[in-house]
């Protein structure tokens, strides 16, 4: 029995001490594994399959998924001939989709950079704050993140509208004569992204900056660096892992963002998440929206893989 | 101690003002007597009364709470198992795929997760509604639970488990008597994270909903597309208050447990 087995360093990864141990291990691995296979991986392949099939006027509005694939009489060639790149062709021949992809990347890129510029001083201030304040400050950054995303975006509608708070205040102060038109523009979308994703930027930056050894800065200043130069040559390079993680955490979801462009953007704000939703709900063109999803994923696969590798490395090294 | 520099104080002040002002304004205008979100008329709680009398809103809130309770609980079980699998068993077939499937949903655009699950449910002809939303929420929240619990398990002292097993505990018993109590704070915060993510979710629910299953975010979203509604401000304020109180309570609880643990460790050290 387990009690007689010698204690093994590292625990569970050693050979199972008994068959019961093996069973526990198997269940612990298999249950979440199978769940994710069924509800994450297989759906993904269904999206791939449907993106290659034709739209039909029926419910559901696409040619069946499993019929031909499970039909034993059909040859592989017949199965393949059912698939087509028609949807992808439509996406590339219609400038609307190309534009939506480009707009998404540009808006997400500018917003990510703005989030970095705003988030860095906050994270820096937090990391330099007296030690006993830090937990509270961290808590204050995380708290808005727990509040509904939708609510936080909604809060900006009342602020940015033509007759909203911002314009009222600015006009009351006599700074502007007529309302600024921010709502329903790309600027409103960027403000919404910066605001919603700011905690994602601050947290990795803070954890990178907090670990920093102060004596390095002192050394740099003793050697004649100005504060700015020592920041640029010492602090910033050391915080780079936090900068990279933060930028990925903001950029990746921002590209596929749907709520923010839909609520704050105007009709000219074509972002790909919104286009996908419209193809799906208004036009009920499911194959096309599946194709849009596949291309969105291809666009994001490089940043996602880089990000995952970095995260796995950090987890494995015990943070 | 370092001197607190003016620059740092200024950046923190502006930063937190930017983070909190929009939410505070939203809360404030939920008490506005007027209909506008920009002109202050006077204090009133009438929007709260009308929100509570709004049957559709209350139905949506009830659906949301049921989905969140159920999905957070299942997601916590699955996520904890996944975290154990990732930290304890470093070698098994398909581990790379497994860890990929844990991390990918964290960064996957919601529109893709939502669409792919919908297409799965349609392909197997599963009736859409309450259950499809719940299944979808379990799937994307369990990955967040796994990451939270995993970060606790990484710093877990394995000798405790080995001691229990040497004393004759089965692995099953060891888990419930030793491991689970120790990682409990992480499991609880994982559950809370799953619960809030589920309450907040709009996109994935919208894809997977069916007749009769409207969640609160879906209702709020369809109401505010046309502009600000004070009744919605009132509902949002209630949500914000509940979530903030829960988060603050949880963080105080974790802190107290941490302090107790440190005290117990010191005591044990002193005795040896």
Uncertain stretches of chain B: none
Structural class of chain A: mainly alpha
Name given to the CATH homologous superfamily of chain B: MetI-like
DSSP summary, beta strand count of chain A: 0
Order of helices and strands of chain A: HHHHHHHHHHHHHHH
Characterize the largest beta sheet of chain B: strand count, sense, and whether it forms a barrel.
none
- Secondary-structure content class of chain B: mainly alpha
Mean pLDDT of chain B: 87
Can you lay out the helices and strands and say which pair or pack?
The complex is a heterodimer of chains A (319) and B (272).
Chain A: H1 19-51, H2 67-70, H3 76-82, H4 86-93, H5 95-128, H6 131-146, H7 149-160, H8 165-172, H9 186-210, H10 214-222, H11 227-238, H12 240-255, H13 259-264, H14 272-281, H15 286-316
Helix pairs in contact in A: 1-15, 4-15, 5-9, 5-12, 6-9, 7-9, 9-12, 10-11, 12-15, 14-15
Chain B: H1 6-29, H2 46-52, H3 55-88, H4 95-107, H5 110-123, H6 130-153, H7 158-166, H8 171-200, H9 203-208, H10 216-224, H11 230-271
Helix pairs in contact in B: 2-11, 3-6, 3-8, 3-10, 4-6, 6-8, 7-8, 8-11
Write structural notes for this entry.
The complex is a heterodimer of chains A (319) and B (272). Chain A has 319 residues and is mostly helical. Chain A folds into two domains: 15-82, no CATH class; 89-316, MetI-like fold (Orthogonal Bundle), CATH 1.10.3720. Chain A is built from 15 helices and no strands. Chain A has helices spanning 19-51, 67-70, 76-82, 86-93, 95-128, 131-146, 149-160, 165-172, 186-210, 214-222, 227-238, 240-255, 259-264, 272-281, 286-316. The longest helix of chain A has 34 residues, at 95-128. Chain A is globular, with a radius of gyration of 26 Å. The model of chain A is unreliable at 1-18 (pLDDT under 50). Chain B has helices spanning 6-29, 46-52, 55-88, 95-107, 110-123, 130-153, 158-166, 171-200, 203-208, 216-224, 230-271. Helices cover 78% and strands 0% of the residues of chain B. Chain B has eleven helices and no strands. The chains are: A mainly alpha (319), B mainly alpha (272). At the A-B interface, helix 1, helix 5, helix 6, helix 7 and helix 8 of A face helix 1, helix 3, helix 4, helix 5 and helix 6 of B.
């Amino acid at each position: 029995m387990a009690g007689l087995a010698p204690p093994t360093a590292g625990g569970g990864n050693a050979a199972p001490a008994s068959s019961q141990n093996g069973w526990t291990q198997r269940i612990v691995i298999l249950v979440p594994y199978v769940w994710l296979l069924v509800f994450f991986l297989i759906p993904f392949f269904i999206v791939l399959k449907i993106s290659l099939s034709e739209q039909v006027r029926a419910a559901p509005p696409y040619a069946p998924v499993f019929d031909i694939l499970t039909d034993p009489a059909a040859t592989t060639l017949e199965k393949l001939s059912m698939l087509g790149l028609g949807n992808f062709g439509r996406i590339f021949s219609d400038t609307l989709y190309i534009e939506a992809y480009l707009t998404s990347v540009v808006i997400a890129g500018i917003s990510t950079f703005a989030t970095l510029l705003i988030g860095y001083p906050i994270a820096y201030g937090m990391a330099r704050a007296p030690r006993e304040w830090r937990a509270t400050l961290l808590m204050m950054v995380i708290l808005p993140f727990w509040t509904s995303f939708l609510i936080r975006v909604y809060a900006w509608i009342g602020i940015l509208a033509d007759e909203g708070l911002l314009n009222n205040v600015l006009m009351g102060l006599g700074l502007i004569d007529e309302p600024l038109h921010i709502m329903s523009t790309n600027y409103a979308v960027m403000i919404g992204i910066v605001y919603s994703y700011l905690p994602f930027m601050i947290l990795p930056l803070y954890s990178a900056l907090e670990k920093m050894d102060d004596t390095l800065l002192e050394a740099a200043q003793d050697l004649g660096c100005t504060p700015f130069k020592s920041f640029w040559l010492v602090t910033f390079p050391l915080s780079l892992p936090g900068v990279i993680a933060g930028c990925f955490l903001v950029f990746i979801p921002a590209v596929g963002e749907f709520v923010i462009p839909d609520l704050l953007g105007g009709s000219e704000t074509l972002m790909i998440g919104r286009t996908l939703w419209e193809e799906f709900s208004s036009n009920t063109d499911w194959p096309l929206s599946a194709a849009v999803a596949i291309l969105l994923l291809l666009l994001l696969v490089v940043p996602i893989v880089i990000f995952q590798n970095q995260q796995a490395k950090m987890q494995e090294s015990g943070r | 101690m370092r001197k607190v520099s003016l620059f740092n104080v200024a950046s923190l002040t502006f930063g937190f003002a930017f983070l909190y002002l929009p939410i505070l304004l939203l809360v404030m205008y939920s008490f506005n007597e007027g209909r506008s979100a920009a002109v202050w008329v006077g204090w009133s709680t009438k929007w709260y009364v009308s929100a509570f009398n709004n049957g559709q809103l209350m139905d949506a809130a009830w659906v949301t709470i049921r989905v969140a309770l159920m999905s957070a609980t299942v997601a916590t079980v699955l996520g904890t198992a996944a975290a154990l699998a990732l930290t304890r068993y470093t070698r098994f077939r398909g581990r790379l795929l497994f860890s990929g499937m844990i991390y990918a949903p964290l960064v996957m655009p919601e529109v893709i997760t939502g669409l792919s699950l919908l297409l799965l449910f349609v392909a197997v002809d599963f009736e859409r509604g309450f259950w499809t939303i719940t299944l979808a929420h379990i799937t994307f929240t369990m990955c967040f639970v796994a990451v939270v619990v995993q970060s606790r398990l990484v710093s877990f002292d394995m000798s405790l488990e080995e001691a229990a097993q040497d004393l004759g505990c089965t692995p099953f018993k060891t888990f419930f008597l030793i491991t689970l109590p120790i990682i409990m704070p992480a499991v609880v915060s994982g559950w809370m994270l799953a619960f809030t993510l589920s309450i907040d979710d709009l996109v994935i629910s919208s894809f997977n909903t069916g007749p009769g299953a409207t969640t609160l975010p879906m209702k709020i979203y369809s109401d505010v597309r046309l502009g600000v509604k004070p009744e919605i401000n009132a509902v949002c304020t209630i949500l914000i208050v509940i979530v903030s109180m829960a988060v603050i309570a949880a963080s105080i609880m974790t802190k107290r447990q941490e302090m107790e643990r440190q005290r117990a460790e010191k005591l044990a050290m002193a005795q040896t």
